[in-house]
């Protein structure tokens, strides 16, 4: 429907823009005319007009005044002492005012230039009277009658000039009035046009608001329908989960029975059936949780469990996939974390498995390290559940030495939905089902996710998640050192090129109060018999010389462990085989048997 009326919407939009532009143009023109016909402009024209008329009358008055002065002048009035010059200069100043400035410009436009000719004639006649005035100042009254006669002869021209200026002034006033009427008419027309445009704009705005209200109502209805659809989808997936789980569990049980029975069933086949069934169950659970998240119906269900036990169970689910790729894996849990925590382990499992699956997918060879440690972030302020006394934050760090993730996948995962002006969480079509669910669960549990990827060097994820400390564990339980404090500290040497794996094993051994040294390249001269334990991994420097030195160490009582026993099967070294994934709980009995046995032997000696 929207596509069919797209051209109509564009036409309405263009009409709206056109009306707005037209209103702006009319407004600018209206204010321009108003400014042009403002009071200052009218006052200036009125002042020039009044000055021209006033100066013309003053010229006539000053002429009569000079004539009257000369008629009344008698011999006793001599000497004049410049009085004649004063009256004459006053008359000539009126001539100058009518010839110069804006007044002169206006006067020259009256009656087609006749006023200018008359003014020039009168100016010439008055200029000629300066000789007679000078004679009067010299007390010579013989020029007085001639002077009076010449001034009286100017009276017709002066009267004609005054009449022309008066007529021209009236014509000027009429023209100005017509101009003002024309401008007023334009203002009225522009005002009417502006009013019409405003009314049309108001109509369009009212229509737009009506459509906007309709769009909001429709959007609200669509959101409700979408929410109902998501709820139906979540209910359907929940029903499928309930119906499919019993048959799959039956298949898994059958596979375990066949594996333990005496029938000649290939063990890889039963393991493959069991692994595929577990993956199918996990996929169904993820789809169900993702649909519940979309429907905003997923609620966390925290429980209290041992953190180490749960993490080892999670690792066992991916052990077969890592073994097929010959990936080394080690888990280290910081002793500062409590043994038992109150957390939604079902959702925590999905987060861990999603990050492990991503690491396995982008790591064709190498190692994967997992760390659980206290986070530097402050714990959120929330209500404590029953049976807990404190909220803390732990950090899950998973690092691989693979190829790294593509850039488009990295950009999609950097979205933080808790920040303003951020997009929603990435969908399954963009980042995959595992990471999409992982991303949403992390922020649902009030956590944060960060990561760093380097091409051909791997990725590292940091996930900060809050958890509750059970009331019975107010303080973390420290691991009791294997060796007694009265005995010297045990030492261990790790020969491993993969520092990602070596550092995790170092942390594991350090937690047992063992001093660890890491070596990537062996120089062939460093003494090896000073170490109580040597762990031999993937080491390119292994040769016959190193083999002889290790044999000497074995004779001296040093213990040799290795998780790469297949590479040393042709050698004469007697190595204790370790299997992945390496965990502290798996190493604990081995270290206890090793060092406690050595201590007992030394005590017996």
Automatic annotation (TrEMBL):
SMART domains: HATPase_c, HisKA. The chain crosses the membrane at residues 15-37, 184-206. InterPro entries: 2C_system_His_kinase, HATPase_C_sf, HATPase_dom, His_kinase_dom, HisK_dim/P_dom. Keywords: Kinase, Membrane, Phosphoprotein, Transferase, Transmembrane, Transmembrane helix. SUPFAM superfamilies: ATPase domain of HSP90 chaperone/DNA topoisomerase II/histidine kinase (SSF55874). Residues 239-469 form the Histidine kinase domain. It catalyses: ATP + protein L-histidine = ADP + protein N-phospho-L-histidine. Its EC number is 2.7.13.3. One of its GO terms (molecular function) is phosphorelay sensor kinase activity. The keyword Ribosomal protein does not apply. It is an enzyme of class 2 (transferase). Gene3D superfamilies: Histidine kinase-like ATPase, C-terminal domain. The keyword Membrane applies. This is histidine kinase.
